[in-house]
Amino acid sequence: MTMTTNPFEHEKTGDTLGRIASGLFLGARRYSVSMVNGISRYTLPETADRIVNAFIAPSQRGEEAVQLAIGIDIRLVGGGSHFDLYKTFEDYNTNGRGPVCVDYLPQNSKHLALDDMAVGSVARTLVESIGLEIERLREALAIAYESGFVDTAEGRALDKVVSILGVSRRNYAQGVVRIEVAPENLGDDTFTLPAGALFLASSSRSGVEFQSMAEVNISASLPVAEVRVQACSGYEGKDGLVEVGQIDILLCPISELAEVKVSNPQPTAYWEEENDEQMRSRVRSRMVTHNPGTIMAIRKAVRRAGGRVVRFKEGRHSTIGHLVLEVAPLAARSDTLEWRRKVRAAVHEARVAGVFIRVKISREDQG
To answer: 0.70 exceeded by the pTM?
Structure first.
């Protein structure tokens, strides 16, 4: 993972260490100086030669102090007994008028020699070296923090994060699916098939499932659309290879459309290994579809029981929490009493507690 250095953080680090090197936090005495007769002239409690720091204190919580440099922001007058500000408070972008404070060296102490901050000086070299190490530590901590999340982890760190879901990098097949709807069935509406929609190669040897890798829109002006798909979990490597025309069923039908034609114009191709972004997409899909009670979870449960969902519907005068699920068998002549019991048990297991789903057997595909 590549981290970019934050110049502001590095500047703050160097500034703080510079003040430490100048003796600010080594027992310095702090005074709040007062204005003389309402003008921008302040009286110093001691001679100016022992000042190590001057600043405008924040007027409210959350603000930062404004540092004042002698000769740049402050002009000493009266032999060092007073000083004037070259600028007004508004010039320093302060929201309010905080007190002006001055830090002095402790009594009976000498000014530290580490106050030469010129390039190449001992003080600057020490400050920059320590500041660089603190910045590297900050970057390492940021990497460690971001390596704990699916959206920001990379490489081996991502492998470890998703392993708690039982997910690992895999080889999979990819292909293109063509979706076609008769223009007269579309009207003036635009229908969207979301990324992650499931397709079935029903005529393949093992009934391979694929999921779309992008969102696709279908309208009267664009009744034919193509979307890239990849083999789902359980169909890794060569198990995801299918021939032309074998992907023929949309397992997540668009309820408003009566007929959707699906096909793959080219055979699926073998892909070596998914990258981080592909893995993240698969994990997000898994986290959504494996949550009990989602429509996708119920579709998968029916699929594992040897069926497919034709439609979900809610009666016109139905009670809240009562749904009707219409299913059909995947294989011809598999509509047996045992199969129906298996499907109903799978739906009952996948539903959310408190929701009643009545399973109805579709007659559309039965001759």
So the answer is: no
